[in-house]
């Protein structure tokens, strides 16, 4: 094997030239790899002893895309287009061998090869929309030529990878190879091509699937899909359409122009920022790489309510055995029923086979005995949000949990140290704050108590990934990161309603910003009685009045909204009357409040609170706060999160806006503004 450069090798296997790429961890197509590839392709072409070329990757995956970290730098040297021109010009057939993930520029390079084989576990996708981009290296021109327009439209707009089996059925792959025999299989495939006298088969010349396509396909596709405020999917549709109306090279030019415009857009900058922010969140500052990780195979959950049932489902889905403890039999039966019907609905929607649902549900054991948790590696408490109840649970747990077990609370707001203090092992206690609905929401706040050990934190961070969540470290403060910021928005929303805005108008402004739901719809979903106590409630707030009237949110089919049997929300005259009376009781004369004021008063205090959290060291970095809001509360991805949004509108607008509503800006905002720094870079 001869090294072309540190990431590219060219060797010979009989009459096949073998190009091997090796740039861990994901073989991103960086400048050095593009240059190596061009040189290797030239070497393979020039070698008179070979009749075909094989392109394969070392490590855990085929090329997972262009190197995103280069997007903000000035590009020098060979471009991906140069690589592709070299592949298109090759006189010997090029076989591409795929394992792991062929994504974005990786799949585009594969499609530029003349034949493609893969192992059954491989995945193929054009995920660029998730970065606010369209495929920019011919993906929108080659993909429909291989798999047809309709499938290509789906792949470039939803960004989800397809399986190798689907790739084979669709014509994206020519053959599947046994899992551990990719190279041997691909070499044999190449030799067969040679034996059959088959030469290059350029995707650019395969026009059948893009000829005679009715424009109606595109109109229908647009009508059937709502991409909310996301611009990239609509741009990707235009590019696929171009593949059906333009010659190949013009289509490529069209795609390049759109790719460039997307790359420079604020939306793509925000989404690329979020991509790296998510990966950064997994790294806890100050923790050594060799911090011991504890094994977790058996999990206990205490409380089978909304969250306990959801959390148990998350662990069962990840293959772990789960024991759920409840205080009374009826609640346990209700909780297990809710989990079972969750699985049944996944089966109905085609997301899970009936067999798989049965296996997962079979991992759960319900009990009324705390003692059954004695052999658990991790126990997550999800009982009522009440300090006395939680302390009682942890004191009991401390007596029965095995030594070394991790004890976690799913509390939304309460002090983790106060909870930990009732145990003899506060170093093994932390917050694991899941979001509702737990099986769906990707965020897991990992709350560090004053005494939580590094090993427990590192284990929790690793666990987050294993159960499909994005873990973010949070300091122990009322509401941690997410709910602390949420309270600011909720207080502002409540104040706006008191002053005259309707809760429905407030929600509309927030959903127009592209949140999936507004503050009042969200409060209904969480349950208005979360942390509310009937015994001490005296109609002090709108929430008190609604709860006192039995309107406790979606679960009672009424809260700020009324809910029908299908949980469809509609504005409620009863709630409107409660609000009108509440204002009158407070002596408030309602005034008309515009959308801009609603937006500013809801969003600016969130930024301000984020800055305070950073000042207090309750979050390690601003980008962690953004990840919390992107994955826990549905902040629109193309706006990057509250900290990134602050940078995008500028400190001037943030500070002036806060002052307009007589809110004192956090000192950090003024400090960073004076230093001309970005908030989202703060760490
Ligand atoms: N460019 C640069 N770095 C990348 C990268 C890329 N395309 N993909 C992954 N990485 C980096 C990550 O930042 C991370 O770095 P770190 O260790 O320093 O934090 C490291 O590779 C490992 O990544 P993950 O932690 O995400 O590893 P996983 O095994 O969980 O996931 C993956 C692997 C599925 C490949 C996932 O990394 C992924 O989805 N990557 C992005 C794929 C993508 O979006 N490709 C399209 C890029 S845009 C493009 O190709 C444009 C083209 O059309 C011109
Ligand atoms: P819930 O009221 O639906 O469920 C609580 C369950 O705990 C009940 O089934 C109850 O019977 C059980 N329970 C109470 N005391 C118990 C004990 N001593 N032993 C065993 N079981 C006991 O409440 P929910 O919404 O599930 O909340 C649970 C916790 O999760 C709270 O701390 C809450 O703040 C937190 N949380 C709630 C979220 C939400 O959206 N509802 C989101 C994230 C966290």
Account of the 3D structure:
The protein has 683 residues and is α/β, with parallel strands linked by helices. Helices cover 46% and strands 13% of the residues. It is built from 27 helices and 20 strands. Helix 2 (80-89) links the parallel strand 4 (52-57) and strand 5 (94-98). The radius of gyration is 28 Å and the shape is globular. Residues 302-308, 325-327, 331, 335, 382-385, 389, 393, 410-412, 434-436, 526-527, 530 line the site of 1,4-dihydronicotinamide adenine dinucleotide (NAI). 1,4-dihydronicotinamide adenine dinucleotide is lined by residues 302-308, 325-327, 331, 335, 382-385, 389, 393, 410-412, 434-436, 526-527, 530.
Gyration radius, to the nearest Å?
Answer: 28 Å
Separation, N- and C-terminal Cα atoms: 44 Å
The distinct bound ligands, ions and cofactors come out as: 3-hydroxybutanoyl-coenzyme A, 1,4-dihydronicotinamide adenine dinucleotide
Count of helical regions: 27
State the strand order across the main sheet.
Answer: 13-12-11-14-15-16-17-18
User: Which shape, going by the Cα principal axes?
Assistant: globular
Average predicted confidence as pLDDT: 97
Could you describe the largest sheet, including whether it forms a barrel? 8 strands, mixed
């Amino acid at each position: 094997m001869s090294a072309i450069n540190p990431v590219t090798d060219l060797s010979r296997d009989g009459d096949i030239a073998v190009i091997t790429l090796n740039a861990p961890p994901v073989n991103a197509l960086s400048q050095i790899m593009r240059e190596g590839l061009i040189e290797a392709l030239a070497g393979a072409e020039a070698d008179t002893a070979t009749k075909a070329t094989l392109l394969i990757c070392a490590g855990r995956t085929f090329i997972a895309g262009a190197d995103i970290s280069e997007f903000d730098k000035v590009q020098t040297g060979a471009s991906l287009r140069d690589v592709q021109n070299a592949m298109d010009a090759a006189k010997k057939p090029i076989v591409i061998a795929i394992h792991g993930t062929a994504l974005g520029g990786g799949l585009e390079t594969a499609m530029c090869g003349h034949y493609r084989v893969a192992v059954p576990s491989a995945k193929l996708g054009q995920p660029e929309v998730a970065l606010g981009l369209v495929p920019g290296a011919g993906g929108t021109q080659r993909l429909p030529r291989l798999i047809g327009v309709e499938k290509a439209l789906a792949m470039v707009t939803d960004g989800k990878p397809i399986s190798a089996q689907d790739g084979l059925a669709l014509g994206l792959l020519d053959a599947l190879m046994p899992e551990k025999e990719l190279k041997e299989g691909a070499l044999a495939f190449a030799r067969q091509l040679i034996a059959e006298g088959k030469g290059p088969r350029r995707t650019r010349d395969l026009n059948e699937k893009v000829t005679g396509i009715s424009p109606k396909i595109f109109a229908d596709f647009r009508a059937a899909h709502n991409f909310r405020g996301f611009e990239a999917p609509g741009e990707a549709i235009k590019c696929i359409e171009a593949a059906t109306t333009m010659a190949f090279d013009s289509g490529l030019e069209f795609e390049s122009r759109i790719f460039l415009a997307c790359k420079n857009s604020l939306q793509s900058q925000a989404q690329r920022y979020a991509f790296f922010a998510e990966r950064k969140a997994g790294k806890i500052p100050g923790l050594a790489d060799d911090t011991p990780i504890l094994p977790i195979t058996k999990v206990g959950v205490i409380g089978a309510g909304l969250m306990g049932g959801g959390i148990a489902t998350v662990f069962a889905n990840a293959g772990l055995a789960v024991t759920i403890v409840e205080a009374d039999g009826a609640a346990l039966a209700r909780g297990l029923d809710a989990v079972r019907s969750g699985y049944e609905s996944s089966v109905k929607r085609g997301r899970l086979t009936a067999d798989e649902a049965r296996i997962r549900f079979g991992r759960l054991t319900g009990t009324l005995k705390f003692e059954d948790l004695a052999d658990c590696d991790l126990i997550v408490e999800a009982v009522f949000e009440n300090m006395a109840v939680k302390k009682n649970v942890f004191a009991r747990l401390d007596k029965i949990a095995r030594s070394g077990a991790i004890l976690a609370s799913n509390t939304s707001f309460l002090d983790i140290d106060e909870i930990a203090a009732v145990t003899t092992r506060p170093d093994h206690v932390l917050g694991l704050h899941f979001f509702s609905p737990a099986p769906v929401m990707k965020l897991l706040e990992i709350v560090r108590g004053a005494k939580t050990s590094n090993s427990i934190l590192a284990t929790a961070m690793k666990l987050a990934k294993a159960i499909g969540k994005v873990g973010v470290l949070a300091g122990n403060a009322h509401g941690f990161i997410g709910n602390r910021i949420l309270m600011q928005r909720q207080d502002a929303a409540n104040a706006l309603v008191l002053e005259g805005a309707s809760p429905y108008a407030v929600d509309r402004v927030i959903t127009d910003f592209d949140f999936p739901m507004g503050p009042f719809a969200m409060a209904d979903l969480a349950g208005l009685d979360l942390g509310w106590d009937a015994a001490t409630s005296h109609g002090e707030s709108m929430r008190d009045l609604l709860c006192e009237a039995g309107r406790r949110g979606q679960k009672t089919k009424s809260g700020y909204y009324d809910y029908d049997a299908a949980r469809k929300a509609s504005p409620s005259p009863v709630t409107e009357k409660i609000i009108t009376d509440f204002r009158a009781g407070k002596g408030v004369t309602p005034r008309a409040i515009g959308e801009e004021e609603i937006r500013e008063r809801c969003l600016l205090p969130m930024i301000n609170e984020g800055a305070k959290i950073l000042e207090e060291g309750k979050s390690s970095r601003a980008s962690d706060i953004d990840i919390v809001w992107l994955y826990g509360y549905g902040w629109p991805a193309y706006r990057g999160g509250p900290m990134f949004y602050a940078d995008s509108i500028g400190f001037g607008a943030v500070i002036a806006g806060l002052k307009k509503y007589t809110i004192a800006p956090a000192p950090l905002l003024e400090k960073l503004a004076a230093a001309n720094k970005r908030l989202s870079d703060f760490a």
